[in-house]
Amino acid sequence: MLDLYKLKIFSVVVQEGSFSAAAEQLLMTQSAVSQHIKELEISLGQQLFQRGWRGVTLTPHGEILQCYTVEIFALVAQAENAIKDVDQLQSGRVSIGATPGIGVYIAPDWVQQFRARYPQLTVALQTGITSQMVSEVRGQRLDMAFIEGELDEPQNPRLKSLVLEEIEQQVVVGFKHPFWDRDQLNVAELANQPLIVRQANSQSRIWLEDKLHDHAITPVIGAEFDNLESIKRAVSIGSCLTLLPPYVVQAEVEQGLLRMIPIQDKPFTRSLKLIWDSSNYFSPVSLAFLTILSQHFPVLRALLKEMKAKG
Dihedral of CA 218/222/226/231: which sign? Predict the structure, then answer.
């Protein structure tokens, strides 16, 4: 009888194109992956992969098994989604990822709303930069992730994304800044203004500098920090400004510590996106989590309808 665990390893090797890449995604040693594939080949009496110095390719028998593997895991997911009643589960888990701003300022509210509806279930939240979230989703160590960062092209065709919301980045200043009493700014007014920004290699920093250059503005970097709390603190007590989404500074604005100032024509807008691996079927718990989120993001309803139809 086919071993589903070995079939999963086989599927990842097919997706990654090598034992070493599959081992990295599965958090296993390369020798362990090789051993599982060898045992699978012995049990079937057929060679599944052609080994080469650049990786592995499927043999004709391997291609047949891969077709059935896709169908097998689809049927497993369909059976689980058809039978399992999330309300009756005594335990269950969904693992989600988020880039820093979302993970700190938005996702905790989502988790609490989900827990209020399903107190017996667990949400595991992991925070990291966009590239880390993509890697974790592709490795199927996360069920899904929420990012604001831009996705590099070309992406793996298995990686799917859905824009949930467009979020305007606004100028944020403290009371010492001359813009404190302004109600709106023109993008040209940002020229020669000292900025507090994220570290140089961050997706947010790269995105901001690209946008400023699009408007012929060379950014003047007053300071750079690797976390948003430090940026907010520095802006609130100094004379530099920053650009952030409203949800990051909502509490400080309500306390009168910071001011948000919109920019005419909204030139700095980023997309909040859901990403997932299309080869990894959403579990009933994952679908329940997305259903809670669909109250905030109606665009999710079409995806949920599609996923439930597949499952």
Answer: negative
CB 44 within 8 A of CB 17: no
Average pLDDT, the chain: 90
Residue that the structure tokens 């400080």 belong to: 252
Phi, psi of 205 (to 5 degrees): -65, -45
CATH code for residues 4-83: 1.10.10.10
CATH topology of domain 86-166+271-310: D-Maltodextrin-Binding Protein; domain 2 (3.40.190)
Summarised one tens digit per residue, pLDDT across range 85-124 is 676 777 889 999 999 899 999 999 999 999 999 999 999 9
Burial class for 137, CB neighbours closer than 10 Å (0-12, 13-18, 19+): buried
Q: Which of 171, 205, 176 is nearest to 191 (CA)?
A: 171
Name the one residue in this structure whose structure tokens are 């499952």.
311
Query: What does DSSP say about strands 242-244 and 170-173: parallel, antiparallel, or unpaired?
Result: antiparallel
pLDDT tens per residue across span 255-308: 999 999 999 999 999 999 999 988 878 888 999 999 999 999 999 999 888 876
Tell me whether domains 4-83 and 86-166+271-310 share a fold.
no
Q: Which of 79-88, 219-228, 263-272 has the lowest mean pLDDT?
A: 79-88
Sorted by where each begins, the domain ranges of the chain are 4-83, 86-166+271-310, 170-267
What are the CA-CA distances from residue 194 to residues 116, 209, 217 (Å)?
44, 13, 12
Distance CA 121, CA 92 (A): 5
How are the residues of the chain apportioned to helix, strand and coil, as percentages rounded to the nearest 5?
Answer: 45, 20, 30
DSSP assignment of 82-94: HH--GGG-S--EE
CB distance 197 to 219 below 8 Å: yes
DSSP secondary structure of 234-300 = HHHHSS-BEEE-HHHHHHHHHTTS-EEE-BTT---EEEEEEEEETTSPPPHHHHHHHHHHTTT-TTH
Fold of the CATH domain 170-267: D-Maltodextrin-Binding Protein; domain 2 (3.40.190)
